[in-house]
Design a protein that fits this description.
Elements lengths: L16 H5 L2 E4 L10 E4 L29 H5 L6 E11 L2 E10 L3 E5 L8 E7 L5 E12 L2 E8 L2 H11 L5
Antiparallel strand pairs: 1-2, 3-4, 3-6, 4-5, 5-8, 6-7, 7-8
């Protein structure tokens, strides 16, 4: 059944779409290593949406619901927050404000007393007690009546390590 330029060629190593539609399938070894595959006619398939011959109904397995995960694991954050209550200086487009960081994590912080639109880019500067002053580029991800939550846009290694030194002894 192998023909040069026909619907099925051995060099292709697979059954082309047209050959599959007419019921040809590949048998034997693959075209690699010198083996010669053959094409043969496959058993006819039932069209989709029809029951197999002789069947009057289709029984599907009953789906089972997986066990619900433990609620404590849902509430667990990738980067836990730590209470901070540290003064911060926030710079944004046409803005320079003094505010308070209520809490902080390696992913971001919550700033009280600040209003800024979601998505706005800010720079937050804060002095970490017993360490250095860090300047963090961030974006506003949430806001409410008391302040905004910002997510860090990227930390350099020095700022990351300074934050980790601040957070580690305060984690639960």
């Amino acid at each position: 059944m192998t023909r040069e330029g026909g619907p099925f060629t051995e060099r292709a190593g697979r059954v082309p779409e047209k050959a599959a539609r007419v019921g040809l399938r590949r048998t034997g070894r693959s075209g690699r290593g010198g083996g010669r595959g053959q094409a043969e006619v496959a058993a006819p398939r039932e069209p989709p949406g029809k029951l197999p011959a002789g069947e009057t109904s289709l029984t599907l397995p009953t789906p089972t619901m997986p066990d619900l995960p433990d609620l404590d694991s849902i509430r667990e954050r990738q980067h836990p927050r730590v209470a901070a209550n540290l003064p911060v200086e926030v710079r944004g487009p046409g803005m320079l404000r003094q505010a308070v960081a209520e809490d902080i994590s390696l992913a971001g912080l919550r700033v009280l007393g600040l209003r800024a639109p979601i998505g706005e880019s800010l720079t937050v500067a804060l002095a970490l007690p017993g360490d250095r002053r860090v300047q963090l580029r961030c974006s506003v991800v949430r806001q409410d009546a008391t302040g905004v939550a910002v997510e860090f846009d990227g930390l350099d290694w020095d700022d990351l390590f300074a934050l980790a030194r601040f957070l580690h002894p305060r984690l639960p």
